[in-house]
Specification:
Radius of gyration: 20 Å
Mean pLDDT: 91
Oligomer: single chain
Order of helices and strands: EEHEHHEHEEEEHEHEHEHEHEHEE
Largest sheet: 7 strands, parallel
Number of domains: 2
CATH class of the largest domain: Alpha Beta
Low-confidence stretches: none
Helix content: 25-40%
Strand content: 15-25%
CATH topology of the largest domain: Rossmann fold
Length: about 300
C-alpha cells in the first residue's frame, strides 16, 4: 500500500500548465477553490457541463475551454474530477495514460469510488487519488490499495462555511430540501429522487417541525429546468417554493433544517450545525454517507 500524504499546498505544487478537466460540479467546486488559492492563472482548463459555470464564476467567462486533447497537449500533468454524469474526465485520463502524462483525480464524495474510474468495462486509474477528509481516505485505501493517496485541503468547504456564517437573513427559519438525481428506480418504476421526496412528505408529521414551515426545494446543478414543477403542483397543499439562491451557502444560511438523500450539501449542512434528515426510504439502498449526526427517516419505520 502506498503511504498517504497530506499536502497543504498540493494545488500550488502542480506543474506549470497543468491540464484541469472537470464536468460535474462536485469535484469542480473543490478543485477550482484550491486553484484560486494559488493565485496562478496558467491552468489549461477543459470545463464542460456544470463545471463550466463553476470555473466562470471563479476566473471569469473569458477563460478558454479546451478539449481534453487540447488541454493535454504540452501539459506536464492532469488534474481531473471523478463525476459520473459524463465520460469527459475518464477520456482525459485515458489520453494522459497514453501520453505518459502524470495524472491526479479528486474524489469529492464518499460513495461509488471504483465506478468513478470505469466506463464501458474500461478501468483507468490516475497515478494519484486526492481526497479531502479521513472518511474518504479510509474508503479510498480499501478501494485503491496500490495508488498514491493524498489528503488535500478542502478550500471549497472552508469558503462555504465562512459564507454561511456571515450571511445575515431575517426571514423565518425554513427547511431546505436538496434534490439529487437517483440512477435507479429501486424496482418501483419511478425515479428514486421522486420516491425520496414522496417519502419525506409522508414523514413530515413525525418530525416535530413547526406548523406551516416553508420548504424550499433546491434542484441539483445537473437537473434540467422545470424538473420538479409538476411534482410541486401535485403538492400545492404544502408550503413549497423552488429555491433560487445564488449559492448553496446562502440557501443553507436561511435554513434551520436540511433534508436530502446523499448529496455533499448534507455534509456541509452538518458541518454548519444544521439538523439534517436523510430521506432515503426503507426500500432504497442504505445511505452511504459516513458522517455522524444524520437523522435517517427510514429508522422511523422501526
Amino acid at each position: 500500500m502506498h503511504e498517504n500524504r497530506f499536502v497543504s499546498d498540493a494545488f500550488a505544487a502542480l506543474p506549470l500548465n497543468t491540464a484541469v478537466v472537470c464536468h460535474d460540479a462536485g469535484a469542480a467546486n473543490v478543485i477550482v477553490a484550491g486553484l484560486r488559492q494559488t493565485s496562478r492563472h496558467d491552468w489549461r482548463a477543459c470545463m464542460h457541463g456544470p463545471a463550466a459555470l463553476v470555473w466562470e464564476r471563479a476566473f471569469g467567462s473569458s477563460a478558454p475551454f479546451l478539449t481534453p486533447k487540447e488541454a493535454l497537449f504540452g501539459a506536464q500533468s492532469l488534474l481531473s474530477g471523478t463525476g459520473w454524469a459524463s465520460d469527459l474526465e475518464h477520456n482525459a485520463r485515458v489520453l494522459a495514460l497514453k501520453a505518459e502524462i502524470s495524472s491526479a483525480a479528486l474524489l469529492d464524495h464518499w460513495v461509488n469510488y471504483p465506478m468513478r474510474f470505469e466506463r464501458a468495462g474500461e478501468i483507468v486509474l490516475p497515478d494519484e487519488i486526492w481526497v479531502t477528509d479521513g472518511y474518504a481516505l479510509d474508503s479510498a485505501r480499501q478501494c485503491f490499495p496500490d495508488r498514491l493517496l493524498r489528503t488535500v485541503d478542502n478550500w471549497y468547504m472552508r469558503g462555504q462555511l465562512s459564507e454561511i456564517s456571515t450571511v445575515c437573513d431575517e426571514v423565518e427559519p425554513e427547511l431546505l430540501y436538496l434534490a439529487e438525481p437517483a440512477r435507479s428506480d429501486w424496482g418501483r418504476g419511478i425515479q428514486g429522487d421522486f420516491q425520496a421526496l414522496e417519502y419525506f412528505v409522508s414523514k413530515l408529521p413525525q418530525l416535530g417541525l413547526p406548523q406551516g414551515l416553508r420548504i424550499r426545494l433546491r434542484p441539483h446543478p445537473s437537473d434540467v429546468p422545470g424538473k420538479y414543477d409538476a411534482w410541486m403542483r401535485a403538492h400545492s397543499q404544502l408550503p413549497l417554493v423552488l429555491d433560487s439562491s445564488p449559492s448553496i451557502a446562502i440557501a443553507l444560511a436561511r435554513a434551520k433544517w436540511v433534508a436530502g438523500c446523499e448529496s455533499f450539501g448534507l455534509t456541509l449542512a452538518l458541518a454548519a450545525g444544521r439538523q439534517v434528515f436523510c430521506t432515503l426510504p426503507p426500500w432504497a439502498p442504505r445511505c452511504r454517507l459516513p458522517q455522524t449526526g444524520l437523522i435517517h427517516l427510514a429508522a422511523l419505520d422501526g
